[in-house]
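Methods — Computational structure assignment.
A single polypeptide chain was analysed. Its primary sequence is given first, followed by the predicted tertiary structure written as structure tokens.
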Amino acid sequence: MKQNAIEKLLAENNGILKTADVVTAGISKETFYKYVKGAGLEKAAHGIYLSPAAWADEMYLLQAQIPKAIYSHETALYLHDLAEMEPTPLTVTVSSQYNSPALAEKGVRIVYVKKEWHALGVCSVLSPGGHLLNVYDIERTICDVIRKRREIDASVFNYALVGYMKRKDKNLNRLMEYAETMRLEKKIRETMGVLF
């Protein structure tokens, strides 16, 4: 009975299981660890296990280990189909008060923002591996790339802005609300005026 429940969770999560999710489902750690050993699951990180057939979804695994990291900038552009290729390294944003040596060791680019900006515009998007990720929505991402324009490749920047303006789901009102909160109204208006 418990084995069927674990296998169902494993299938629902594309072959990746977190100990916390199993415990939340009412299955003891002891039962789960017996299953892990018997089924040959591989430990991907602390409390995260992969089935032998699972594709190691690096974006999901990183966020499962460090849930306060939100995908942003070039990585968010990629996840929103506003980039031509997957960025290297991945970029995440955390609150300026957050300190994680583990995150720095992952080889990702870390952007620190004011605490009050950290949750602004967070949404969920599917990773290439089919797992939900926390990422900034399109408008917040546009604000971020305009804010960090000097650090972003010009071709990536232009592709993203042209792509954004062509999208039917763009929300210019939300873009300006975020710009106001982040004190970017002038930069946003200048940038959009030059490009369009």
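Note: The mean pLDDT is 88.
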